[in-house]
Specification:
The protein is an alpha/beta fold. The chain has twelve helices and nine strands. It has two domains: about 160 residues, Rossmann fold; about 130 residues, no CATH class. The radius of gyration is 26 Å and the shape is elongated.
Length: about 300
C-alpha cells in the first residue's frame, strides 16, 4: 500500500473525514480537503511540473462539492489511464450516530445549506447515501466509524497503509538532559539516572561526554546501569501497544542526570540501540549539546 500515489477519502458527512485526513497527514501524505474531482488532473499536472518525487497525496472529496460529483468516476478513470495508482476509502456510519454527532457539534448538514423548506435530517442522510452509492461501490475499503473513536480510526488507517499495527511503526524519541538546566516539559516519560556513579569525578573523564567510548564504558560497567537499561527497554516495548491505542504516533523519553553531559548521554544512546535491535523506531538526541552549541555562537 506504500506505493499508492493518491488516497481518496470520501463518505457520509459526519463519518470522520477530518480525523481520517489528520491520520493520513501523520503518515506523511500531502493532504487536500474538499477538492472538486474535476481538479484532479490539474493537481497531477502541478505535481509533474514541480518534479516532486515520491510525494503521496490524500484527497478528501465529499458531498460539499456535489455539483462536481458527477466527475468522480471519470476523474478516477483518468488517474488510472495516466499511470497513477489510487486507493479509495469510504467512511460510513449509522444514521443515529450521525444525527447525534451533528447535534453535539451544532453543525448544519451540507445538504441543508440554502434550503428554504429543509427536510428532516433522516431524509437528508438518506439522500446523501443515495448520492454516494456509486462511490461506496468503487471503494477499496469501507470503514464503519459508528463505534470507532478517532484513535481507533487512526489505528485502522495505519494498518491499511503501513501493514502493521500502529505500535510497530511508532517513533520513540529519546533525549538526554541535565536537571541543573531545567526539567523537560515536552517528555511523556522522564527518568532520573543520577543513581549511576558519576564520571564527572574522574579527572580524565570530566571534559568528555557520554558519546565518547571511555565515558560510555565507565557508565555502562555498573550492574545497576545494565539492570536499569534491561528493565526499562523491556518496559518501553511492553507499553508501546498501550500508548498507540491512545492514538500516539510518537513516544518521547527524557533521560536526565545532573549536567546532561555524561551519564544521561551514554544511557540514552545505549537505550536507543537496545530498542533498535528489537525493531523499535528509536532515535536519540542530546538536549544540552544543542544548548552548548547555541551558547558558543
Amino acid at each position: 500500500m506504500k506505493d499508492v500515489d493518491f488516497t481518496i477519502v470520501t463518505g457520509l458527512s459526519g463519518a470522520g473525514k477530518t480525523q481520517a485526513m489528520k491520520a493520513l497527514e501523520d503518515l506523511g501524505m500531502f493532504c487536500i480537503d474538499n477538492l472538486p474531482p474535476a481538479l484532479l488532473p490539474r493537481l497531477v499536472e502541478l505535481h509533474a511540473n514541480q518534479g516532486i518525487a515520491n510525494r503521496k497525496y490524500a484527497i478528501a472529496i465529499d458531498i460539499r462539492v456535489r455539483e462536481y460529483f458527477s466527475d468522480f468516476r471519470k476523474s478516477l478513470d483518468w488517474l488510472v489511464q495516466s499511470g497513477y495508482s489510487y486507493h479509495l476509502i469510504f467512511l460510513d456510519c449509522s444514521d443515529n450516530v450521525l444525527i447525534k454527532r451533528f447535534s453535539e457539534t451544532r453543525r448544519l448538514h451540507p445538504l441543508l445549506e440554502g434550503q428554504q423548506n429543509p427536510e428532516s435530517i433522516y431524509e437528508i442522510i438518506t439522500a446523501e447515501r443515495r448520492l454516494l452509492a456509486d462511490a461506496r461501490e468503487l471503494a477499496h475499503d469501507v470503514i464503519d466509524t459508528t463505534d470507532l473513536r478517532p484513535m481507533e480510526l487512526r489505528l485502522r488507517l495505519n494498518e491499511i497503509y503501513q501493514g502493521n499495527p500502529l505500535h510497530k511503526t511508532m517513533a520513540v524519541d529519546i533525549f538526554s538532559f541535565g536537571f541543573k538546566h531545567g526539567a523537560p516539559i515536552d517528555a511523556d516519560i522522564v527518568f532520573d539516572v543520577r543513581f549511576v556513579p558519576n564520571p564527572y569525578y574522574i579527572d580524565e573523564l570530566r571534559p568528555l561526554t557520554g558519546e565518547q567510548e571511555d565515558v560510555a564504558d565507565y557508565v555502562l560497567q555498573w550492574p545497576i546501569t545494565q539492570e536499569f537499561i534491561e528493565r526499562f527497554s523491556s518496559l518501553v516495548q511492553d507499553l508501546l501497544p498501550a500508548y498507540s491505542k491512545e492514538g500516539k504516533g510518537r513516544l518521547t523519553i527524557g533521560i536526565g542526570c545532573t549536567g546532561g553531559q555524561h551519564r544521561s548521554v551514554a544511557i540514552a544512546i545505549e537505550l536507543a540501540q537496545r530498542l533498535q535491535k528489537e525493531g523499535v523506531k528509536a532515535t536519540v538526541r542530546h538536549r544540552e549539546a544543542v544548548v552548548a552549541q547555541v551558547n558558543a555562537v
